[in-house]
Amino acid sequence: MNRSTRIEDDIVALLPRLRRFARTITRHSSDADDLVQAAIERALRSTAQWQSGTRLDSWLFRIVKNCWIDEIRARTRRNRLFAPEEDGEQVGVSYTQRQIDAMAVQKAMEQLSEDQRMAVGLVLIEGLAYKEAASVLEIPVGTLTSRLARAREALQAVLSDTRQEPQ
Amino acid sequence: MNISDETLMAYLDGELDPETRLRVKAAVAADPALAARVAQQQALIGQLRSAFDDTLHEPVPPRLLAAARAETDSVAAPPARKRRAAALASAWAQSWLPPRRGAFGGALAASLIAGVLLGHALTRHPPGALPFVDGSLVARGALAKTLSVQLASNPDPAAPVHVGLSFRAKSGDYCRTFAVSHEDQRPPYAGLACKEAPGWRIHTLTETDRSGTPDYRMAASNLPAAVLAAVDRLIDGDPLDAGAERAARDGGWTP
Fold this sequence. Notes:
- The complex is a heterodimer of chains A (167) and B (255).
- Chain A has seven helices and no strands.
- Chain A has 167 residues and is mainly α.
- The termini of chain A are far apart.
- Residues 81-92 of chain A have low confidence and may be disordered.
- Chain B is an alpha+beta fold and 255 residues long.
- Helix content of chain B is 49%, strand content 14%.
- In chain B, the strands form two sheets. Chain B has a four-stranded antiparallel beta sheet, with helices on both faces. In chain B, strands 1-2 form a two-stranded antiparallel sheet.
- In chain B, a hairpin with a 2-residue loop joins strand 1 (132-133) and strand 2.
- Chain B is elongated and about 85 Å long.
- Mean pLDDT of chain B is 71; it is low at 71-135 and 211-221.
């Protein structure tokens, strides 16, 4: 098949990771899929900018990042950076321990700055190398590692209370 | 060996060269306090990954798959008619987004698409039903009237136009999905319109599958993908319920 078709198939294969990354950087999971959709649409309009042979995942992560920054700016203009609170409204639902742990992590992530969340999402969760993550975020490696260090410290402080013993 | 926080972090993230890595590993083995810090950090990473890994195993929402597949509609060997229509409608919707996002397609492409769809619409619909007002497509005639007065909770099965979901858009405007069917062989179509200054502005318009119609109340699952995608993109919160729909209509759909 032609080049466009291969890119499209590769994007489809990366959708689960794009969604995971979007969930790590948006405060609300309801925003995450909107963000991924906006990023895919933007990516498909600019496939010419992707250089064959470079990492497609990094390119897409960068587009997700840029779309999110645009969204934050737009929301700031509209004075609604924070979506309505969702957690805690689902009274009467029972959660598994795993879900409770996940919610604690989400809450801890909410304490981080946008920049720190992106660093955590790319390095600690997506497993990108520093160099790759720094290039996605378009920042020097030193800036990335200092964001990561502060984020780790903050997460550790919030989560050490709730953490279960490692199995 | 004194291990800085920075080195320890690089060790955990697999960023050290093999030699340094071995030195740190030996130091960790020899120092219980250091080993405890490593274990704590590893537990943190494990906790983070486990919190987000579920996303990897969830089914990907169809709208994202559709978005990722959209491009081949224009380049692959002959696409299904319905998919081409959906892609057109989606491009059409894109062309009506605020300028900040509309820049990608370029004015020429947008006007071309608008021309194609408009020509398409005018050959099928009574003249004057879908005119341009100030560069936008605005509903008139039966479509405009139905959008203004009909309640989805109180449908008229004999009417050619049916309203589906009503909702508040992020812009604050009220928007409604609609479906138009015909007695004859002309294909039905569906779309999304928002009540804005010039009237009911059409954001999305797409042909629908005749066989796939018509539960006229159009639960969200019955909406064509392109219309659903437009709803997803614009909606702020949940669709209006019957009471809110009536209140909005009685208020003239003014925010």
